[in-house]
Amino acid sequence: MEYVIEMLGIRKEFGGFVANNNITLQLKKGEIHALLGENGAGKSTLMNVLFGLYQPEAGEIKVRGKSVKITDPNVANDLGIGMVHQHFMLVENFTVTENIILGAEPTKGGIVNIKKAANEIQALSEKYGLDVDANAKIQDISVGMQQRVEILKTLYRGAEILIFDEPTASLTPQEITELIQIMKRLIQEGKSIIIITHKLKEIMDVSDRVTIIRKGEGIGTVVTAETNTDQLAEMMVGRQVTFKTEKGPANPTEEVLNVQDLVVLDYRGVERIKKLNLTVRKGEIVGIAGIDGNGQTELIEAITGLRKIKSGKVLMNGQDVTNKKPRQITETGLGHIPSDRHKHGLVLDFTIGHNIALQTYYQEPFSKMSIMNYKEVSKKAKQIIEEFDVRSGHGEASLARSLSGGNQQKAIIGREIDRNPDLLIAALPTRGLDVGAIEFIHKRLIEQRDKGKAVLLISFELDEVMNVSDRIAVIHDGEILDIVEPKETNEQELGLLMAGEKRKSAGAVKGDE
Amino acid sequence: MSNRVINILVPVISVIIGLIVGAIVMAVSGYNAVDGYIALWNGIFGDSYTIGETIRQITPYILAGLAVAFAFRTGLFNIGVEGQLIMGWAAAAYVGYAVEGLPKFIHLPLALIAAALAGAFWAFIAGVLKARFNVHEVIATIMLNYIALHVSNALIKVWADGGDKTQRILETASLRSPFLESITQYSRLHWGIIVALLMVVVMWFILDKTTRGYELKAVGFNHHAAEYSGMSVRRNIILAMTISGMFAGLGGAMEALGTFEYVGIKGGFTGIGFDGIAVALLGANTPLGVIFGATLFGSLQNGALNMPNEAGIPTEIVSIIIALIIFFVASGYVIRVLLEKFNSKKEGK
């Protein structure tokens, strides 16, 4: 079998930091090849080398048997390599067609022939079963369809080899299934695919072979059919990984958080939380399950003081904190792992060390008589970096911006858990993280619970909610529809609840407790 | 080449390229470039008098640069340093001549504080407008510049009973120093440079040492994260503008209490405040960098005065040459990129 792409012994350094060392990846024609590795293992670096964004220090790249030098993305394009980015590169208020032809507009006498392009794109979409409306505006279509537009973009430009960077990160379970079918269709049409991911389940579902890298080193390539998730996880992390988080029964005691008849508006004045009631007790993890956009963001922001509460009450440790300032609420014993780490969680242009102090910078020993003691800050930062395995180029002096997403997240989680709050709100704490990190974070959440603290977990991943929570509150359209125990439910039932269908059994009354 | 070498090479090469292009401009216009640069050099370092005058010129540039840099570091673009400086100038001059009977160690600090407060107040207005009503500080401060210019002119008219400048400030409020004058052949060098250097330390201290500085920077970089961590975004924006304006006001005091010892009606802006933007950017918005930027600006401005006299080059051409040199220093980034490319190629071989 011939190889369409061979990356042999690739090495890439960034000022002394070795991001890739001696990595070999060989892509056969017509296969789906997974590139597996932890956050910060060097997957993106390797693909950026292939895409011409970085120049390797050593190693060789062959395309269809011929040695090539990919000096910039245009060269990659000409070689038929296309990239479907994790963060879509689309102009929101352009149509699908306009986005796809952007930069390669078919013109006749200086005039863009949109109609012809739209027809071509529609035909291409049908050929590969992408189901994209070429004339729809990007802002009006779903995330899944936006991704298919990205795929179309590469196909329209004649890509034979498609690189998918973490393609399932922002998709719903249904959309993931569809994507897998599309990938298989692409292969049938003779394309070859590299998929970057750290989700083992998807690898087992979709790929033919897997290349694993760990901490920048190439570990090896295995045939998917001859391996299993345990072995893959071990190769990726370098040790055995458990998927089911071990935990004993919960011992809930007194109430920490009590939300009563909460009503919250969004920025347009639309009611997003409608008379919501919720309690969280010490010694338990309450999971909030729901589809994105059902009021999760507004609920967290209202509890943490980032958003005005229209009516209703929030009690923390018995204290009324309704519409109090964020710091006053924090000081009643609240920790908050925000869902958007770049917007709320970190000051990206601060060092990791300074970010570690973000919630406590004004307290002793970090600040004494209004003077910062940065020595203490970096001491604390080193401790958290060590304890939470935050990897970066220059330790606590690295800019937060320079860390990979997973390591940024670990730093935030370290900061919040280290304060040992009575209530820890964890909003999408494992989004974009690899199994090793997810396992670690779940353990830490359960540890907090076992120490007699309360945890409120918000997640879109059913697995996570089922695994970690002691009680699951299903949110739909700004209301808690029902509260169930993980043992007494399953994914199907939760799925229905999340879609807004109330249980018909007697349990439905429980929602109003 | 290590990073360190590149860091030093970049400004050096920038200045050299600027000088070469300036020389071409002079040659094309029919003037002797060598004579021109000798005149420039003599105008900066020629004798102790010119050195004294150069340092005097640098002083307000340092303060204007600090004002802009401080705002930048806290996420604000204070384009109103000019207006704040004008208000500081007027306030210092007024306190300098109108408050009588105080000993120097009270009167002089009082005049400086008046200038700092006037500048701070002028910036505070823009800060409040931004924090409370979301008015962009660039628009607010540009408009406040015009208001400052004409308010100051109107005040001077009242203070001077219809004249076009106030009376001289009292000796007890003056920054002038017979000692400094005597060692620089009676230049107008005054103690203001000490005030300016002290403020460099103050800016560094506020930003890098105090808890407030941590907040100001956090709000400037990412106000969402600042809000999440419980900081008051509004209060910090207002405070950042106010501190920035304080530096600018002190810049005005340098002119009022040192160089001129009065305040006169102005036909237009002094330009120091606007040059402060370039000074801050040349200095990468760091306190030490501002000294470098101000030195470059002040030296060139002062040295340029000598070029028409000594080398007979018209002031228009001189302005072009000075602008070219600064232009190339400011484009240091391009030179850095070229150097790094050259470097990596060499290492690749």
Describe this structure in words.
The complex is a heterodimer of chains A (513) and B (349). The radius of gyration of chain A is 25 Å and the shape is globular. In chain A, 32% of the residues lie in helices and 27% in strands. Chain A has 513 residues and is an alpha/beta fold. In chain A, α15 links the parallel β21 and β22. Chain B is mainly α. Chain B folds into two domains: 68 residues, no CATH class; 264 residues, ABC transporter involved in vitamin B12 uptake, BtuC, CATH 1.10.3470. Chain B is built from 16 helices and no strands. In chain B, α2 crosses α3, α5 packs antiparallel against α11 and α8 packs antiparallel against α11. At the A-B interface, α10, α11 and β20 of A face α9 and α10 of B.
Report the count of strand segments of chain B: 0
Largest sheet of chain A: 6 strands, mixed
CA radius of gyration of chain A: 25 Å
State the fourth-level CATH superfamily of the largest domain in chain A: P-loop containing nucleotide triphosphate hydrolases
Query: How would you classify the quaternary structure?
Result: heterodimer
Cross-sheet strand order for the largest sheet of chain A: 6-9-10-3-11-12
Structural class of the helices, strands and pairings of chain A?
alpha/beta
Envelope shape of chain B: globular
Count of discrete structural domains of chain B:
2
Give the class-level CATH name of the largest domain in chain B: Mainly Alpha
What shape does the CA trace of chain A take? globular
**Overall mean pLDDT of chain B:** 92
* Record field, number of beta strands of chain A: 24
Keywords (chain B): Cell membrane, Membrane, Transmembrane, Transmembrane helix
InterPro entries (chain B): ABC_transp_permease
Subcellular location (chain B): Cell membrane
Main location (chain B): membrane
